[in-house]
Design goal:
Oligomer: single chain
Strand order of the largest sheet: 1-2-5-6
Organism: Actinomadura parmotrematis
Radius of gyration: 18 Å
Structural class: mainly beta
Number of helices: 1
Distance between the termini: 69 Å
Number of strands: 6
Shape: globular
Largest sheet: 4 strands, antiparallel
Protein name: ATP/GTP-binding protein
Helix content: under 10%
Strand content: 25-35%
């Protein structure tokens, strides 16, 4: 029998519950953002992705991002990871009525 492998445990930050949180600050052309990855097991509610305007169903891994100057994080948005990575290459999503011309 092979020996048991030692596994490193990650402890949650003190004073908080719900597990460890990994945040990073990203600088982009639209300013500095704080980005937090959300695991699929922790995604309990559906959200609307502002990048593609599609729903992120419960159980799907995604990212939460808010401006770095918004310390409270009250203006957080939930994004698909590919939508977040492509936000600089995409133009704004224009909502059109059903029979509106596309030009």
């Amino acid at each position: 029998m092979s020996p048991r492998k030692n596994r490193r445990t990650v402890r949650p930050p003190s004073g908080g519950g719900g597990g460890p949180r990994f945040e990073e600050t990203e600088a982009g052309p639209d300013g500095d953002w704080i980005v937090r990855a959300v695991a699929g097991a922790n995604a309990a509610k559906p959200y609307r992705c502002p990048g593609c305007d599609q729903e992120i169903p419960p159980g799907v891994a995604h990212v939460v991002a808010w401006r770095a100057d918004d310390r409270d994080g009250e203006d957080r948005r939930h994004w698909h990871r590919p939508c977040w990575n492509a936000r600089g290459r995409r133009g704004p999503r224009v909502q059109r009525s059903r029979n509106a011309p596309r030009y």
